[in-house]
Amino acid sequence: MDLTTDYLGLTLRNPLIASASPLSNTVDGVRRLAHAGVGAVVLYSLFEEQLRREAAENARLAEVGTEVFAEALSYFPAEAEAEAAQDGTADEPSPRRYLSLLERAAAAVEVPVIGSINGVTPGGWTSYARAMQDAGAAAIELNIYYIPGDPHITGREVEQRHIDILCQVKGAVTVPVAVKLSPHFSSAGEMALRLDEAGADGLVLFNRFLQPDIDPETLAVMSDVYLSSPAEARLPRTWISILRKHLRASLAATTGVEGPADVIKYLLAGADAVMTASALIRHGPGHAAVLLDGLSEWIARKGYPSVAAVRGMLALPADTDQVAYERAGYVSAMRAANSSRGPW
Ligand SMILES: Cc1cc2nc3c(=O)[nH]c(=O)nc-3n(C[C@H](O)[C@H](O)[C@H](O)COP(=O)(O)O)c2cc1C
Hints:
The chain is of the alpha/beta class. It is about 45% helix and about 15% strand. It has 14 helices and twelve strands. It has helices at about 25-35, 50-60, 70-75, 80-85, 95-110, 125-135, 155-170, 190-195, 235-245, 260-270, 280-285, 285-300, 305-310, 320-340; strands at about 5, 10, 15-20, 40-45, 115-120, 140-145, 175-180, 200-205, 215, 220, 250-255, 275. An eight-stranded parallel β-barrel has the order 3-4-5-6-7-8-11-12, surrounded by nine helices. It has a two-stranded antiparallel sheet with strand order 1-2. A two-stranded antiparallel ribbon has the order 9-10. Helix 1 packs parallel to helix 5, helix 6 (about 125-135) packs parallel to helix 7 and helix 9 (about 235-245) runs parallel beside helix 10. The protein binds flavin mononucleotide. Flavin mononucleotide binds near residues 20, 22, 44, 225 and 227.
């Protein structure tokens, strides 16, 4: 059974990728994920705010310039680590710690290890992306977690920010670059096309925003991370199916994979790779083997020769009248819902 897939120009042994999560914050964790069978691992993200803080700290302690951030990393003095231990930030992923993990993880496993940057501004990304490449990252994932909280920012400005970040990083590295983006654009499809045209090697659909909750008893705002459910896969799956025939870039699905059926549905919609985090956190890294066994069993039972034969089978044809298609689906779904006697 041929489970191989092409993602970002890399040949993966299968389409299942462990997406960025705390499971990949140690070499042992990465090893466990690879041992369970995943085709690639994305390391947890390094945050730009943290880079800036630590770059400033570097400069202060070592009295060296931070013009080239990667270079500055090599000057990172032991005192800074001691200070980090003292001020309680030792457990945070410092750039040096991150690069060391990346280097050791890439050497420890046979599958590609992808570095992830979670940035804010166009300028902050490039030197660190280069440092990740030098440390052995097979590819870079740009986790563009940007909430335009200022109501005066226009949609076009937000979109341009994404393009600028991508172009800057593409100009700085030779490894493939994927963009993990949000679904919250006026036209998510056009944003995807623009990123494709600007040279993205892959798009990861979609970033899952942390949406704070409110506790009415304590009047506290809670920004806890919650694990996903399969119903949340419908949004990225719909967009993957719409975009598949329009893009040159690879497409990775992220959100809502719980069982093998969720992996299969993403592949049918047109994903080149399917990422999972919540399910692996919930059930342990060994759950990757359950997902892959289920995928193999389904492919064999249906009589297909490979993942390639399945991928995109239910993607929308490029010449579909998208507006009419969406409208027809919406109207028939609403008609059925309104005429049935449900529990609502
Ligand atoms: C605890 C936790 C930590 C995460 N950390 C990161 C991160 O560092 N960078 C990132 O891009 N995504 C991060 N994510 C998002 C996941 O990579 C993934 O895109 C998202 O959870 C949706 O996939 P899932 O439904 O399989 O969990 C995190 C998710 C969880 C649950």
